[in-house]
Specification:
It is built from 7 helices and 2 strands; from the N terminus they run αααααββαα. It has 172 residues and is mainly α. It has a two-stranded antiparallel ribbon with strand order 1-2. It starts with 5 loop residues before the first helix and ends in a 26-residue tail after the last helix.
Length: 172
Amino acid sequence: MTETTPYDDDRARFTRQALARLVLCDHAVDVADAAGLVATENDVDTGPGGRVSQAFQLIELAERALASAVVFERERGSSWAEIAQYLGIGPAEAEERFAAVLGEWGTAFDVPYRLDETGRKRIPQLPTAAYDPAWVCEKLDRWASLQNIGIDAVSSGLVMADPEEEPPPAVP
């Protein structure tokens, strides 16, 4: 799998820290968009247990956002002790809790694609926000603008790759 895609060139413009931050932003938007429990006018349209289902989905989305936040913090150099203090656990426990997520993140850069069961289609291993960051920047900036957060509130703060640096070689 030595073929490249247009996304590979786009992705090379971003640091791993910036890609991790985009994944966190994307997951945070999912949480915000799913937090529709405030409005009460449609309660009659929800079946028994429906609001519990929505609240549980928020927990699942928040857990995914938390894992993305840990990846971002590790990419920007935060120690396990610094992360653990906000989780209310010890550094070793924090490292153990998020070891699999960090392992998957690192592996996705080494082996960016896997073949599907037919062996013909490449499946990206990175989250969409890190796989196609240019598109996600546009999407997130548009979302932030619509939420009155500010124009380019997402992409303007990213730490980008130095264009003078040679990008790492594509991994087969």
